[in-house]
Specification:
This protein is an alpha+beta fold and 476 residues long. The structure holds flavin-adenine dinucleotide and FE2/S2 (inorganic) cluster (FES) (2 copies). One FE2/S2 (inorganic) cluster binds next to loops. The site of one FE2/S2 (inorganic) cluster (FES) has 12 residues, from loops.
């Protein structure tokens, strides 16, 4: 047992004696003396703390991602390469991204700049096409209070092509020196890093109060802002069964509880495009590079974005423990305000989304004050099958209008078997209104949420009538 081991700007770093849930940001600034990485909010919102993590993919090539170092722990960094702003250039040799920011007046006070540099560097190295859309999406997790975004976007356009340097093969080889151990420790805290579901089950049986750590984009706040330090943590990130991602034999999608949003997105785009569009609005890229659907489900927030989608699609979770596995519908898993049916010793091993039914249409709407990087006020998701003008099947689920995400069963019943017409939808609105119980809070008033819920059902109807609005689910 010892500390985490990772490559830090190309050099092997050992964190012996430091608790594994120490945030990477604190470690970089306070232990490693790398103060180029800044703290703005310490809760994943501003991007000032962005660093690049790199890991090998199945082919052995390095894959690069921007992450919020204020949320990621040093335990999660074990076995990865971490690059900070100090690792991409210096006063005598600016990287193309840095050069473009300087020449294009992309910085004023400079506090946000290291975060922008690292988000842009990870993007450039990812080899993604630089379009206005991808650049805006990539920068959505970085806030600047003084420069304004136009010069920064222009610097990005200017530099992205130029910044793609082939990875030094020795960098990938050096990662082999940093193999993640099965157990990390520091100052009385232990973080287990099991490799299989059976190992994870056994650890949970031994330590039922251990904290299960997924991507850490919810739990990380307890480490960064909350300064909590649980004695035992179990990280799911390297559990083989929880890293699987496959098209199920039935034509649906089956993925492990440790698969990140970023890893899921290409598959969701192919199978459930409206779900993918919604996932692209969860937090920022930095959040999606770490966060998981399993974490979203266990957090069970009434405004958790994926929950209405999974309910409307009839998704199931497989819960594993030392005594076996059980598979239940997501709508049965969520039991109340931030409560679930997860029992002691259990964890979400995987999530299964069934194949799209013949002719089924899937819709998902997220309403929030800002388009990017904002928590929803209301989310409505619906699967709808209309045959010969009649509603053969519908599954409607809504978040943000009650203490838990709701399946709108009475509204569904009112629509089922009837003609799919504007009049039928107008009639169903009264039932929907009676089914929901929204509250006032700083995101939206109860009245606004009611009005939006009805408007979204109307929108669903109108979009279903628009021939070129092609959200028809494609079979595999
Ligand atoms: C800046 C910011 C923006 C965000 N934006 C959004 C947003 O737009 N929409 C949204 O819905 N959410 C948002 N979130 C919340 C968060 O990103 C999601 O809920 C995410 O899906 C959590 O997943 P995770 O893997 O990071 O969970 P973690 O933080 O690792 O864990 C969350 C909870 O799930 C438990 N857990 C994790 N994995 C498992 C498992 N396999 N089995 C059992 N228990 C498990 C943990 O013990 C913990 O209780 C945001 C968060 C931040 C910080
Ligand atoms: S410090 Fe703001 S996102 Fe990390
Ligand atoms: S340059 Fe000052 S916050 Fe961005």
């Amino acid at each position: 047992m010892g500390g985490s081991v990772f490559l830090l700007n190309g050099t092997v770093e050992r964190t012996d004696g430091v608790p594994p849930t120490t945030t990477l940001l604190d470690y970089l600034r306070l232990q490693a003396g790398l103060t180029g990485t800044k703290e703005g909010c310490a809760e994943g919102d501003c991007g000032a703390c962005t660093v690049m993590i790199s890991k090998r993919d199945a082919d052995g090539a390095l894959r690069h991602h921007a992450v919020n170092s204020c949320l990621m722990t040093i335990g999660q960094a074990a076995g990865l390469a971490v690059t900070t702003v100090e690792g991409v250039g210096g006063p005598d040799r600016l990287s193309p991204v840095q050069q473009a920011l300087v020449e294009g007046d992309g910085a004023q006070c400079g506090y946000c700049t290291p975060g922008f540099v690292m988000a842009m560097t990870a993007f450039a190295k990812g080899g993604e096409e630089a379009t206005e859309g991808t650049i805006h999406d990539m920068l959505a997790g970085n806030l600047c209070r003084c420069t304004g975004y136009r010069p920064i976007v222009e610097a990005c356009i200017e530099s992205v092509g130029a910044d793609i340097e082939a990875d030094d093969p020795s960098a990938a080889d050096a990662l082999d020196e940093c193999a993640a151990p099965a157990c990390l420790s520091g100052r009385g805290q232990v973080m287990h890093v099991p490799r299989s579901s059976s190992e994870l089950s056994a650890l949970l049986a031994e330590a039922p109060d251990a904290w299960i750590l997924g991507g850490g984009t919810d739990m990380g706040l307890r480490f960064s802002k909350g300064r909590e330090s649980p004695p035992t943590v179990i990280s799911t990130g390297r559990v083989g069964e929880m890293r699987l991602l496959e098209a199920g034999e039935d034509g649906g999608l089956h993925f492990g509880g440790a698969v990140t949003y970023t890893e899921l997105l290409p598959h969701l785009t192919r199978l459930y495009p409206a779900f993918a569009d919604l996932v692209r609005r969860i937090g920022s890229r930095q959040i999606r590079n770490l966060g998981t659907i399993a974490g979203n489900l266990v957090t069970a927030s009434p405004i958790g974005d994926t929950i209405p989608c999974l309910m409307a699609l009839g998704a199931e979770v497989t819960l594993a423990s030392g005594t076996g596995r059980r598979r239940i519908l997501v709508e049965d898993f969520i039991t109340g305000y931030r409560t679930t049916d997860l029992r002691a010793g259990e964890f979400i091993e995987s999530v299964s989304i069934p194949p799209p039914g013949d002719g089924a249409l899937f819709y998902a709407y997220k309403i929030s004050k800002r388009f990017d990087q904002d928590i929803s006020s209301v989310v409505l998701a619906a699967t709808l099958t209309v045959t010969g003008g009649v509603v053969a099947e519908s599954r409607l689920a809504i978040g943000g209008v009650g203490p838990r995400t709701l399946r709108l069963e009475r509204t569904e019943a009112a629509l089922k078997g009837g003609a799919w017409t504007e009049e039928a939808v107008e009639a169903a609105l009264a039932i929907l209104d009676a089914e929901i119980a929204p509250m006032d809070d700083f995101r939206a008033s109860a009245d606004y949420r009611r009005a939006v819920s009805g408007a979204l059902l109307r929108r669903l109807y109108l979009e279903s009538q628009t021939p070129d609005y092609d959200l028809r689910l494609e079979a595999l």
